[in-house]
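TOKENISED FOLD:
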Amino acid sequence: RHSFCILNSVALGTGARRFHVSAAFSAKAKVAMSRFEPGSSVNYEKMHENINIVRKRLNRPLTLSEKIVYGHLDNPAGQEIERGRTYLRLRPDRVAMQDATAQMAMLQFISSGLPKVAVPSTIHCDHLIEAQIGAAQDLQRAKDVNQEVYNFLATAAAKYGVGFWKPGSGIIHQIVLENYAYPGVMLIGTDSHTPNGGGLGSISIGVGGADAVDVMAGIPWELKCPKVIGVRLTGTLSGWTSPKDVILKVAGILTVKGGTGAIVEYHGPGVDSVSCTGMATICNMGAEIGATTSLFPYNHRMKTYMEKTGRGEIAALADQFKDDLVPDKGCEYDQLIEINLSELKPHINGPFTPDLAHPVSDIGAIAKKSGWPLEVKVGLIGSCTNSSYEDMGRAASLAKQALDKGLKCKAQFTVTPGSEQIRATIERDGYTKILSDVGGVVLANACGPCIGQWDRKDVKKGEKNTIVTSYNRNFTARNDANPATHAFVTSPEIVTALALAGTLNFNPETDYLTAPSGEKFKLEPPTGDELPSRDFDPGQDTYQQQHNIKETDFYNRLQLLEPFDKWHGKDLEDLRVLIKVKGKCTTDHISAAGPWLKFRGHLDNISNNLLIGAVNIENDAVNKVKNQLTGEYEGVPDVARHYKANGVNWLVVGDENYGEGSSREHAALEPRHLGGRAIIVKSFARIHGQFLHRRGKNANIKLCAKYSSVCNFFSVLFMHTETNLKKQGLLPLTFADPSDYDKIHPDDKISITGLKSLSPGKPLTAVIKHSDGSQDRISLNHTFNETQIEWFQAGSALNRMKELQ
């Protein structure tokens, strides 16, 4: 047990439910957004000035993405700018953290020694609520089970000037859309689906927990200048086709890697037929194609949404600066995709990957041919991707048609409101009753089954079955920890229709349902209001106005960080192969979510999930590897712990796109904690952008001298799998020849040589020692820059920070 003491707790906020405008700043186009934290503002004038400087320098039309990104440059006059090559130093406006990642972020911020966050920041309690029975019971259980974590986050938030949204308030991305996002803002969030904010014309980027610390330290944040993929929309959405179908189609085109290093920018005349929350849906799932972020241009849909959510003054300012919030005519994209919304058909993607796209009209035949279970066991609507008022209304319109015929869902059916505001409003307007009457169970305002927080009882683990969701991600075992579950992602409307039919072999555009009376009927296309005719009902006040806890206790959920050991100055000799991974290895395979989320603040406990979802090439099994010291087959973390206890260092061998998925720093922390030294793969995922170059030693950091060394440490972006590994003192390496993957056997010993002369661009050598006495020598590439080499030598980036203090 440890105690984290809180002194000088501060009151946060004014108790207001909405933003207010300071007339004194309005004349300068600066709107005070005192949604509970000081210093938050909208400053279009500064962005406008920066855009003009950059436009004159580049002498060409700019995309919207470029306007907002370059509009946040720390030095627009001197910054070298070339898409896909140079590195930008940026000044983001704010930070948002969900409770699972906020634990490690706040623990690291505490270690930095900084007294307060330098930019407006918020914590959102949404990831730790498990779906079991229903909203009220599940929420109360979560408060009881997670008390240690919630107390720590609430107390740390109060001490360091961070806003705190209590459990039950809703999903981080919905809260951000309702309160903090606006056209032109640059927002950093510790969740891969932060790009949801692009539905309000913002640059919202999902990052790791340490990235949040960078930005909260108030120093320039570095990002490789993104390329821009344009998606031109024409035509009009109608009938069964929804905004979700746009991104399902784009995912099918670009695949899970197609957006790497790029911002996806939607534009064209078809944009105006998409609601603001529909745009957010499209941007949200852009994470699944590897995009840095996605966004839409400012239009009347966004204006109306901001007015309905209490931000009319910001909308009025956005009107004044509209030219900065849309792309220039004649701007050029690195890649252009065109989609005619009038011709787009409803889609369903999966199973096991979000880029396997099918028209709904074909999925029945494809499932039969592929041997996928046709019976739909559960339909799940909601999540951060699809839980808007419009989404719930369209789903309810279908449920009402079925109820009118006396029909209820054949499959189990769950409903997850995205926020307390959505929950209260759909309850007031009757949608909740309709969805419940048709067989739906309303879950808590939280992530729930979307991230694996689902205590599922209807099937046994290993039992082959099908579920359909309106979520964004459907990797193996993602939702229910069952690797045999075939999960498909689609729109809430299609989920509802398939839950009613109980089978994938149902096309609602052409097929009929059968009522209990025997009458056959066809569902009419869904309808639903974009926004409530009355104002939103805010529901219960779930924002913490002040907090006076003096101390929070650490038991088994939180653990203060201990420094990793320094590099011993020699080559790494005779590393054991902990596991040679076969095929896809996402962050869900490396560090599973679901029930493990409760240990996100306790490194030793959560390390018991290390690589338990990865497939061992030796036996095609998960979480079953051979302990080369004992000859026994055990779980991956068990073998890792045994090696560590016996002084044996180890490495992991992986396939293509290692680390695809969430920006999960635990996928780097855990292997380092359990004695790992290197990860050797064919390629690493870069789902949230590219690694960064070194900051100059003489960089101008506008912080007091007392914290200059801390700021220098936090100046390098902690953005994707490869950089995450570097920050923890591991060696992320790639095969110079991908076919060398085949040369490594599970019982080999591997030595990594050349470390004494480790330098940028210089490959390392691996000596593979086979059990028969033979050897192979292969070349390994790396992307370390000079600062990152210092991290490795110090044992971690945190260690290096402390050396500099």
